[in-house]
Amino acid sequence: MNRKGFPQGGQVKRPYLIVALVCVILWLLYQTFQPALLDPKAVSRPVAARGDLAADEQNTIDIFRNSAPSVVYITSIAVRRNLFNLNVYEMPQGTGSGFIWDSSGRIVTNYHVISDANRIDVTLADHSTWKAVLVGMAPDRDLAVLQISAPASKLKPIPIGESSNLLVGQKVFAIGNPFGLDQTLTTGIVSALGREITSVTGRTIHDVIQTDAAINPGNSGGPLLDSAGRLIGVNTAIYSPSGASSGIGFAVPVGEVNRVVPQIIRHGKIIRPGLGITLANQRLTEELELEGVLVLKVVTGSTAEKAGLRATRQVPGGLILGDVILAVNGESVKNYDSLRDEVEKYRVGEKVILLISRDGHKIDVEVTLEAMN
Fold first, then answer.
1. Are 279 and 348 members of one domain?
2. The pLDDT value given to residue 90
3. How confident is the model at residue 151 (pLDDT cuts 50, 70, 90)?
4. Which one of 76, 204, 297, 371 is separated from 153 by 20 to 30 angstroms, measured CA to CA?
């Protein structure tokens, strides 16, 4: 070896030449023996007979064929202004799903799908696209109703089912447009019932259906169907750290949908039943160590006043507490949200029995529910 580490005599080993030589030899061998690997007589293999589809497969196919025409693709479009020339332009903001409610062109979807849209396009199963206008919405229930001008011949309303008699384990089917891929079917089961999720307004949505049918971004607003192809829920949310389906999806039950949507169509919003009272805030109730909900004020002329409910009064030196509502038709209430949830199970004009605490005694008071703004 010399001082620079090279072999004596100036000869330098070059291993890469050996590698190249091996590659050449292998290539020559492949070219020599390749004809033995080929068969000029090769033809397509005969197709094996399929036989009849399984009954559950045929049922799934029938559900999709019958229900897909009722499902729509929704594109929300936002208006933006160019910062340099101040020109206004439109850009797609998001996509979602919906379904045809009736032959008049009304479409039901999630409120959060269209909440920030300046314009909404609805694409039907036949790929025709129609501009939609907002009929009304119920943000607390994450529901909205749109209207398109498509002719009745293009509209196939979805069949309405039941959610009150669902059972954990029964099959369900979701149709929607996940990640913008239209007319996608996923299947699963009812994983749980009676779940609670939070709407975009922060209000709790009760009795939500949990399913393991794959629900991804873009499925929101689409239908959840039972094995008879009937609507049993509106796919609303997923539980996923990554934002994609993790086998836990949620749907607003059809019983709530069928109660809310007609109100939106009639009034553009939900007409809330109420008692005609103002309640004390939760902090005051807790400071007074009261169980239930304290009546702070009673609206003059309200049904609550007619029923004799008592408000809290301020007198020199302190307060004379009003009635404390403990239950509505036998269902206990502990705060404003629980009272509102119980009252909203009923309609304007219906009567409810309030269990109240007054002067240390528990009594029942019948109150007729009235419309609240």
1. yes
2. 47
3. very high
4. 76
Q: Specify whether 293 is located in the same domain as 246.
A: no
User: Which one of 70, 76, 97, 112 is the catalytic residue?
Assistant: 112
**Shared domain check, 262 and 278:** no
62 catalytic, yes or no?
no
Which of 67, 70, 97, 142 is labelled catalytic? 142
Is 116 noted as a catalytic residue in this protein?
no
Burial label for 150, CB within 10 Å (0-12, 13-18, 19+), is: buried
Q: Known catalytic residue: 142?
A: yes
> How many separate domains does the chain show?
3
Which domain, by its residues, includes 75? 65-154
Residue 248 falls inside a structural domain: yes
Residue 183 lies in a domain: yes
Tell me, yes or no, whether 306 and 342 share the same domain.
yes
Whole-number Å distance between alpha carbons of 232 and 253: 6
With respect to residue 102, please indicate whether it lies within any of the assigned structural domains: yes
At position 186, the amino acid (one-letter code) is: T
Q: Residue 10 has what DSSP assignment?
A: G
Distance set, CA 84 to CA 81, 87, 89 (Å): 9, 8, 13
Residue partners of 351: CB distance under 8 A and separation at least 6:
366, 367, 368, 369
Residues 117 and 192 in one domain: no
Pick the catalytic residue from 163, 220, 245, 302.
220
Sign for the CA dihedral angle at 36, 40, 41, 44 comes to positive
Question: How is 259-278 classified by DSSP, letter by letter?
Answer: HHHHHHHHHSS--EEE-SEE
As a whole number of angstroms, the distance between CA 159 and CA 231 comes to: 6
Amino acid identity of residue 86, one-letter, is L
Q: Are residues 146 and 178 in the same domain?
A: no
pLDDT of residue 248: 87
